[in-house]
Specification:
The chain has helices at about 30-45, 105-120, 135-145, 165-170, 185-190, 225-265, and strands spanning about 5, 5, 20, 125, 155-160, 175-180, 195. By secondary structure, the protein is an alpha/beta fold. It has a domain at about 5-50 and about 95-200: Ribosomal protein L4/L1 (Ribosomal Protein L4, Chain: A, 3-Layer(aba) Sandwich). Helix 1 packs across helix 2 (about 105-120) and helix 3 (about 135-145) crosses helix 4 (about 165-170). The longest helix is centred in the last third of the chain and has 43 residues, at about 225-265.
């Protein structure tokens, strides 16, 4: 069973090391799977917008630079041929999609292998909690210095979203803070040292720590199309009521006119 150094929330090293869960840390590192996952991650970061002009797209060169025979020079048809300076590019890069998909099980195996690699190297530490009252970069860097991880790139994995810790490390290029569940194999291999909260590895919360309540469920917002349809229906109903109100006196007067004429003729 692999073990990792255990630290308190203040950065003091505890006497007993932390026993890493055996179902995740079995000491096996699958390098081909790691290579596949990292290559897919880097490929998916590419924009694929590179483009070069072939002979077709280069402006100019619509006539022969000199006549075919009699000059002593090699025959040329255009100054935009690929062997001319300023001419087209042969087989140059063109816009393309670099998206690379990896099966879910392969991603999980690569992530597990990356964690095992850092644990075997002694570059993984477990902390009780990254408890920062408010976002402060100096507080996070001081904590990492007490852990002995201020000399290189460090990945801090928290139990769930920790806004204060994330804001404290977002302006430090050598520190990445993210939830444990969102870390990929590339993120783990990018870092020289990894710090994980013990709750993320299934350990109970330290004494005196109250977990934040789950966010309240909010009513999903109605789609834009539904809102527009409801607004149109309400407008149409209002117009119909207004029109009916205006037409009611006119209809009453029209009905009353023949009745009055009959009474007058009868007298």
């Amino acid at each position: 069973m692999l073990e990792a150094p255990h630290y308190s929330a203040a950065g003091a090293r505890l006497t007993a090391p932390f026993a890493l869960p055996a179902d995740l840390f079995d000491g096996t590192v699958h390098e081909p799977v790691l290579h596949q996952a990292v290559r897919a991650y880097l490929n998916n970061q590419r924009q694929g917008t590179h483009a070069t002009k072939t002979r077709r797209w280069v402006a100019g060169g619509n006539r022969k630079p000199w006549r075919q025979k009699g000059t002593g020079r090699a025959r040329q048809g255009t100054i935009r041929a690929p062997h001319w300076r300023g001419g087209g590019i042969v087989f140059g890069p063109q816009p393309r999609d670099y998206e690379t998909t990896v099966p879910k099980k392969v991603k999980l195996l690569a992530r597990k292998s990356a964690l095992n690699a850092r644990a075997r190297e002694g570059a993984l530490a477990v902390i009780e909690q990254v408890g920062l009252a408010q976002p402060k970069t100096s507080a996070l860097l001081g904590l990492l210095a007490r852990l002995g991880m201020d000399g290189g790139k460090t990945l801090v994995l928290t139990h769930g979203a920790n806004t204060a810790a994330w804001k404290s490390g977002r302006n430090v290029p050598t520190v990445h803070v993210m939830p444990y569940a969102e870390a990929s194999a590339y993120d783990i291999l990018w870092a020289d040292a990894v710090v994980v909260e013990q709750q993320a590895l299934g350990a109970p919360a330290p004494e005196g720590v109250v977990e934040a309540p789950a966010p309240r469920a909010t009513k999903p917002a109605a789609p834009k199309a539904a809102k527009q349809a409801a607004r149109k229906a309400a407008t149409s109903a209002t117009k119909a009521v207004t029109k009916a109100t205006k037409q009611a006196p006119a209809k009453a007067a029209t009905k009353a006119a023949p009745t009055a004429a009959k009474k007058k003729g009868g007298r």
